Task: structure prediction
Amino acid sequence: MDVFPDIAQETRMVVLTGAGISAESGVPTFRDKDGVWGKYDVMSVATPEGFARDPGQVWRFYNERRKQAQSVKPNAGHYALVRLEEFLPEGRFTLITQNVDHLHRKAGSRNMHHMHGELAKVRCTRCEKVRETLEDLPELPRCECGGLLRPHVVWFGEVPFDMDRLFSLVEACDLFLVVGTSGVVHPAAGFVIHAKRSGATTVGVNLEVPENRGFIDHFYQGKSGEILPRLVEYWARCLIA
Ligand code: BV8
Ligand code: ZN
Result:
Protein backbone atom coordinates (compact mmCIF):
# COMPACT_ATOMS: atom_id res chain seq x y z
CA MET A 1 0.00 0.00 0.00
CA ASP A 2 1.27 3.48 -0.94
CA VAL A 3 2.64 5.44 2.04
CA PHE A 4 0.28 8.08 3.36
CA PRO A 5 0.99 11.74 2.40
CA ASP A 6 2.00 14.03 5.29
CA ILE A 7 -0.12 16.93 6.55
CA ALA A 8 0.80 19.99 8.63
CA GLN A 9 -1.03 22.31 11.08
CA GLU A 10 -1.91 24.69 8.28
CA THR A 11 -3.28 22.01 5.91
CA ARG A 12 -6.84 22.93 4.83
CA MET A 13 -8.70 19.66 4.30
CA VAL A 14 -11.94 18.92 2.45
CA VAL A 15 -13.45 15.41 2.65
CA LEU A 16 -16.15 14.12 0.26
CA THR A 17 -18.02 10.94 1.18
CA GLY A 18 -20.47 8.73 -0.68
CA ALA A 19 -22.59 5.69 0.06
CA GLY A 20 -19.52 3.44 0.51
CA ILE A 21 -18.69 4.96 3.91
CA SER A 22 -22.09 3.84 5.21
CA ALA A 23 -21.86 0.33 3.70
CA GLU A 24 -20.23 -1.19 6.82
CA SER A 25 -23.12 0.20 8.86
CA GLY A 26 -25.46 -1.97 6.79
CA VAL A 27 -26.79 0.83 4.53
CA PRO A 28 -26.99 -0.46 0.93
CA THR A 29 -24.99 1.53 -1.64
CA PHE A 30 -26.53 2.51 -4.99
CA ARG A 31 -24.50 0.85 -7.69
CA ASP A 32 -22.96 -2.18 -6.01
CA LYS A 33 -24.46 -5.53 -6.96
CA ASP A 34 -27.27 -5.64 -4.34
CA GLY A 35 -27.53 -1.85 -4.37
CA VAL A 36 -30.55 0.42 -4.30
CA TRP A 37 -30.71 1.05 -8.04
CA GLY A 38 -30.86 -2.71 -8.60
CA LYS A 39 -34.20 -2.82 -6.73
CA TYR A 40 -35.74 0.53 -7.74
CA ASP A 41 -35.94 2.37 -11.05
CA VAL A 42 -33.94 5.52 -10.34
CA MET A 43 -36.01 7.58 -12.84
CA SER A 44 -39.24 6.73 -11.00
CA VAL A 45 -38.07 7.35 -7.43
CA ALA A 46 -35.20 9.89 -7.62
CA THR A 47 -36.40 12.48 -10.18
CA PRO A 48 -38.96 15.33 -9.98
CA GLU A 49 -40.77 13.74 -12.94
CA GLY A 50 -41.10 10.45 -11.04
CA PHE A 51 -42.51 12.31 -8.03
CA ALA A 52 -45.01 14.21 -10.19
CA ARG A 53 -46.11 10.97 -11.86
CA ASP A 54 -46.44 8.81 -8.72
CA PRO A 55 -45.67 10.53 -5.39
CA GLY A 56 -46.95 7.48 -3.49
CA GLN A 57 -44.24 5.25 -5.01
CA VAL A 58 -41.55 7.83 -4.18
CA TRP A 59 -42.77 8.06 -0.58
CA ARG A 60 -42.80 4.27 -0.25
CA PHE A 61 -39.16 4.28 -1.43
CA TYR A 62 -38.11 7.02 0.99
CA ASN A 63 -40.16 5.74 3.94
CA GLU A 64 -38.40 2.39 3.55
CA ARG A 65 -34.99 4.13 3.70
CA ARG A 66 -36.07 6.46 6.54
CA LYS A 67 -37.16 3.43 8.57
CA GLN A 68 -33.90 1.61 7.80
CA ALA A 69 -31.91 4.72 8.78
CA GLN A 70 -33.37 4.57 12.32
CA SER A 71 -31.78 1.19 13.00
CA VAL A 72 -28.22 1.73 11.72
CA LYS A 73 -25.19 3.08 13.57
CA PRO A 74 -22.04 4.91 12.48
CA ASN A 75 -18.98 2.72 11.80
CA ALA A 76 -15.22 3.14 12.32
CA GLY A 77 -14.96 5.16 9.11
CA HIS A 78 -17.44 7.79 10.35
CA TYR A 79 -15.68 7.98 13.73
CA ALA A 80 -12.25 8.32 12.11
CA LEU A 81 -13.48 11.48 10.31
CA VAL A 82 -14.80 12.86 13.63
CA ARG A 83 -11.36 12.30 15.21
CA LEU A 84 -9.69 14.01 12.23
CA GLU A 85 -11.99 17.04 12.59
CA GLU A 86 -11.23 17.20 16.31
CA PHE A 87 -7.43 17.27 16.03
CA LEU A 88 -7.18 19.57 13.01
CA PRO A 89 -7.03 23.26 13.98
CA GLU A 90 -10.39 25.12 13.92
CA GLY A 91 -11.57 25.89 10.38
CA ARG A 92 -9.16 23.46 8.68
CA PHE A 93 -11.71 20.67 8.14
CA THR A 94 -14.85 20.55 5.99
CA LEU A 95 -16.92 17.43 5.33
CA ILE A 96 -19.13 17.29 2.24
CA THR A 97 -21.36 14.24 1.97
CA GLN A 98 -23.48 12.96 -0.90
CA ASN A 99 -25.23 10.71 1.59
CA VAL A 100 -28.70 11.49 2.87
CA ASP A 101 -28.37 9.25 5.94
CA HIS A 102 -27.55 10.88 9.29
CA LEU A 103 -24.58 8.69 10.23
CA HIS A 104 -21.94 11.45 10.04
CA ARG A 105 -24.03 13.65 12.33
CA LYS A 106 -24.75 10.73 14.68
CA ALA A 107 -20.97 10.00 14.85
CA GLY A 108 -20.30 13.62 15.85
CA SER A 109 -19.16 15.40 12.67
CA ARG A 110 -19.80 19.14 12.97
CA ASN A 111 -18.60 21.21 10.02
CA MET A 112 -20.50 19.40 7.27
CA HIS A 113 -22.64 19.90 4.18
CA HIS A 114 -25.32 17.45 3.02
CA MET A 115 -25.09 18.43 -0.67
CA HIS A 116 -27.85 15.96 -1.67
CA GLY A 117 -30.09 16.74 1.30
CA GLU A 118 -31.15 14.52 4.19
CA LEU A 119 -33.59 11.61 4.67
CA ALA A 120 -34.60 13.15 8.03
CA LYS A 121 -35.89 16.33 6.36
CA VAL A 122 -39.09 16.95 4.37
CA ARG A 123 -40.12 20.04 2.37
CA CYS A 124 -43.52 21.41 1.42
CA THR A 125 -44.02 21.59 -2.35
CA ARG A 126 -46.29 24.63 -1.88
CA CYS A 127 -44.85 26.88 0.89
CA GLU A 128 -41.32 25.38 0.74
CA LYS A 129 -41.21 24.99 4.55
CA VAL A 130 -38.51 22.43 5.60
CA ARG A 131 -38.99 20.37 8.75
CA GLU A 132 -36.90 17.65 10.37
CA THR A 133 -38.68 14.43 11.32
CA LEU A 134 -37.80 10.75 11.22
CA GLU A 135 -41.30 9.70 12.27
CA ASP A 136 -43.28 7.37 10.03
CA LEU A 137 -45.19 9.47 7.53
CA PRO A 138 -48.45 8.62 5.71
CA GLU A 139 -48.06 7.67 2.06
CA LEU A 140 -48.97 11.19 0.89
CA PRO A 141 -47.98 13.49 3.79
CA ARG A 142 -49.31 17.04 3.74
CA CYS A 143 -48.19 20.36 5.22
CA GLU A 144 -50.53 22.50 7.38
CA CYS A 145 -50.92 24.71 4.29
CA GLY A 146 -52.33 21.71 2.43
CA GLY A 147 -49.29 21.33 0.17
CA LEU A 148 -47.90 17.85 -0.53
CA LEU A 149 -44.64 17.19 1.33
CA ARG A 150 -41.59 15.79 -0.52
CA PRO A 151 -38.29 14.41 0.77
CA HIS A 152 -35.77 17.26 1.22
CA VAL A 153 -33.24 15.51 -1.00
CA VAL A 154 -31.69 16.44 -4.36
CA TRP A 155 -33.02 14.29 -7.23
CA PHE A 156 -31.43 13.80 -10.65
CA GLY A 157 -31.80 16.94 -12.71
CA GLU A 158 -32.01 19.10 -9.55
CA VAL A 159 -29.23 21.41 -8.33
CA PRO A 160 -27.36 20.19 -5.23
CA PHE A 161 -27.39 22.54 -2.19
CA ASP A 162 -24.71 25.19 -1.53
CA MET A 163 -22.84 24.57 -4.80
CA ASP A 164 -21.08 27.99 -4.87
CA ARG A 165 -19.88 27.55 -1.31
CA LEU A 166 -18.77 23.96 -1.99
CA PHE A 167 -16.86 24.86 -5.14
CA SER A 168 -14.94 27.62 -3.30
CA LEU A 169 -14.09 25.23 -0.42
CA VAL A 170 -12.82 22.62 -2.90
CA GLU A 171 -10.76 25.23 -4.77
CA ALA A 172 -9.16 26.56 -1.57
CA CYS A 173 -8.16 23.25 0.03
CA ASP A 174 -4.62 21.81 0.25
CA LEU A 175 -5.75 18.21 0.63
CA PHE A 176 -8.92 16.67 -0.81
CA LEU A 177 -9.92 13.23 0.57
CA VAL A 178 -12.66 11.30 -1.28
CA VAL A 179 -14.16 8.20 0.38
CA GLY A 180 -16.70 5.55 -0.67
CA THR A 181 -18.03 6.92 -3.93
CA SER A 182 -18.04 5.47 -7.44
CA GLY A 183 -17.28 8.89 -8.94
CA VAL A 184 -20.21 8.62 -11.35
CA VAL A 185 -22.62 11.31 -10.11
CA HIS A 186 -21.86 14.92 -10.98
CA PRO A 187 -21.19 17.60 -9.85
CA ALA A 188 -19.81 15.73 -6.78
CA ALA A 189 -17.65 13.48 -8.97
CA GLY A 190 -16.02 16.59 -10.43
CA PHE A 191 -14.83 17.96 -7.07
CA VAL A 192 -11.63 15.86 -7.10
CA ILE A 193 -10.80 17.23 -10.57
CA HIS A 194 -11.44 20.78 -9.35
CA ALA A 195 -9.28 20.25 -6.28
CA LYS A 196 -6.40 18.77 -8.26
CA ARG A 197 -6.52 21.59 -10.82
CA SER A 198 -6.43 24.08 -7.95
CA GLY A 199 -3.19 22.51 -6.68
CA ALA A 200 -4.47 20.24 -3.89
CA THR A 201 -3.08 16.80 -3.07
CA THR A 202 -5.87 14.29 -3.70
CA VAL A 203 -6.35 11.12 -1.63
CA GLY A 204 -8.95 8.39 -2.25
CA VAL A 205 -10.26 5.42 -0.25
CA ASN A 206 -12.67 3.06 -2.04
CA LEU A 207 -13.54 -0.64 -2.25
CA GLU A 208 -13.45 -0.61 -6.07
CA VAL A 209 -11.44 1.65 -8.35
CA PRO A 210 -13.69 4.72 -8.91
CA GLU A 211 -14.44 6.34 -12.30
CA ASN A 212 -12.36 9.43 -11.48
CA ARG A 213 -9.32 7.45 -10.25
CA GLY A 214 -7.07 9.33 -12.70
CA PHE A 215 -7.33 12.48 -10.56
CA ILE A 216 -6.42 10.77 -7.29
CA ASP A 217 -2.73 11.10 -6.30
CA HIS A 218 -2.81 8.56 -3.45
CA PHE A 219 -5.40 5.79 -3.79
CA TYR A 220 -6.04 3.10 -1.14
CA GLN A 221 -8.28 0.25 -2.24
CA GLY A 222 -10.28 -1.38 0.54
CA LYS A 223 -12.90 -0.75 3.20
CA SER A 224 -13.13 2.77 4.62
CA GLY A 225 -13.85 1.32 8.08
CA GLU A 226 -10.40 -0.31 8.00
CA ILE A 227 -8.29 2.23 6.08
CA LEU A 228 -9.59 5.56 7.47
CA PRO A 229 -8.63 4.82 11.11
CA ARG A 230 -5.06 4.02 9.97
CA LEU A 231 -4.86 7.09 7.74
CA VAL A 232 -6.19 9.37 10.51
CA GLU A 233 -3.79 7.82 13.05
CA TYR A 234 -0.87 8.60 10.68
CA TRP A 235 -2.08 12.20 10.28
CA ALA A 236 -2.46 12.63 14.03
CA ARG A 237 1.23 11.68 14.38
CA CYS A 238 2.17 14.17 11.62
CA LEU A 239 0.70 16.97 13.74
CA ILE A 240 2.36 15.85 16.97
CA ALA A 241 5.79 15.42 15.34
C1 BV8 B 1 -27.10 18.30 -11.47
C2 BV8 B 1 -29.98 11.82 -3.45
C3 BV8 B 1 -26.96 20.47 -12.47
C4 BV8 B 1 -31.26 11.25 -3.08
C5 BV8 B 1 -28.80 11.38 -5.50
C6 BV8 B 1 -28.15 13.47 -18.11
C7 BV8 B 1 -29.42 13.90 -17.76
C8 BV8 B 1 -29.69 14.54 -16.54
C9 BV8 B 1 -28.66 14.75 -15.64
C10 BV8 B 1 -27.40 14.31 -16.00
C11 BV8 B 1 -27.13 13.68 -17.22
N1 BV8 B 1 -25.80 13.37 -17.24
C12 BV8 B 1 -25.23 13.77 -16.09
C13 BV8 B 1 -26.20 14.36 -15.36
C14 BV8 B 1 -26.03 14.94 -14.08
C15 BV8 B 1 -26.55 13.93 -13.04
C16 BV8 B 1 -25.61 12.75 -13.03
O1 BV8 B 1 -24.48 12.89 -12.59
N2 BV8 B 1 -26.05 11.59 -13.53
C17 BV8 B 1 -25.13 10.46 -13.60
C18 BV8 B 1 -25.78 9.24 -12.96
C19 BV8 B 1 -24.76 10.25 -15.07
N3 BV8 B 1 -26.46 14.66 -11.81
C20 BV8 B 1 -27.52 15.37 -11.40
O2 BV8 B 1 -28.62 15.36 -11.91
C21 BV8 B 1 -27.23 16.25 -10.20
N4 BV8 B 1 -27.65 17.58 -10.48
O3 BV8 B 1 -26.30 17.86 -12.25
O4 BV8 B 1 -27.55 19.61 -11.48
C22 BV8 B 1 -25.74 21.08 -11.90
C23 BV8 B 1 -24.50 20.77 -12.45
C24 BV8 B 1 -23.36 21.36 -11.93
C25 BV8 B 1 -23.44 22.25 -10.86
C26 BV8 B 1 -24.68 22.53 -10.32
C27 BV8 B 1 -25.83 21.95 -10.82
C28 BV8 B 1 -27.95 15.74 -8.97
C29 BV8 B 1 -27.29 14.46 -8.52
C30 BV8 B 1 -27.87 14.06 -7.16
C31 BV8 B 1 -28.84 12.95 -7.37
N5 BV8 B 1 -29.25 12.47 -6.04
N6 BV8 B 1 -29.30 10.93 -4.35
C32 BV8 B 1 -31.11 9.89 -2.52
O5 BV8 B 1 -30.01 9.49 -2.07
O6 BV8 B 1 -32.14 9.22 -2.53
S1 BV8 B 1 -27.57 10.53 -6.24
C33 BV8 B 1 -27.02 9.21 -5.34
O7 BV8 B 1 -25.76 8.91 -5.95
C34 BV8 B 1 -26.67 9.41 -3.87
O8 BV8 B 1 -26.73 10.75 -3.45
C35 BV8 B 1 -25.23 8.93 -3.81
O9 BV8 B 1 -24.54 9.41 -2.75
C36 BV8 B 1 -24.77 9.42 -5.10
C37 BV8 B 1 -23.45 8.96 -5.58
O10 BV8 B 1 -23.41 7.56 -5.48
P1 BV8 B 1 -22.26 6.98 -4.54
O11 BV8 B 1 -22.35 7.64 -3.21
O12 BV8 B 1 -20.98 7.07 -5.26
O13 BV8 B 1 -22.73 5.48 -4.38
P2 BV8 B 1 -22.42 4.28 -5.38
O14 BV8 B 1 -23.26 3.13 -4.98
O15 BV8 B 1 -22.46 4.78 -6.78
O16 BV8 B 1 -20.87 3.92 -5.07
C38 BV8 B 1 -20.51 3.42 -3.80
C39 BV8 B 1 -19.01 3.23 -3.85
O17 BV8 B 1 -18.57 2.83 -2.55
C40 BV8 B 1 -18.56 2.14 -4.80
O18 BV8 B 1 -17.53 2.64 -5.62
C41 BV8 B 1 -18.04 1.01 -3.90
O19 BV8 B 1 -16.89 0.37 -4.43
C42 BV8 B 1 -17.65 1.77 -2.67
N7 BV8 B 1 -17.75 1.00 -1.42
C43 BV8 B 1 -18.66 0.05 -1.10
N8 BV8 B 1 -18.41 -0.41 0.16
C44 BV8 B 1 -17.33 0.28 0.61
C45 BV8 B 1 -16.91 1.18 -0.38
N9 BV8 B 1 -15.85 2.00 -0.23
C46 BV8 B 1 -15.19 1.94 0.95
N10 BV8 B 1 -15.54 1.11 1.96
C47 BV8 B 1 -16.59 0.26 1.83
N11 BV8 B 1 -16.91 -0.56 2.85
ZN1 ZN C 1 -46.77 24.16 3.19
Remarks:
- Residues 18-20, 23-24, 29-32, 35, 46, 98-100, 116, 153-160, 163, 180-182, 184-187, 206-208, 210, 223-225 surround BV8 (ligand 1) (CB under 6 Å).
- The longest helix spans residues 224-240.
- Strands lie at 13-17, 93-97, 112-114, 117-124, 130-132, 149-153, 175-179, 201-206, 218-221.
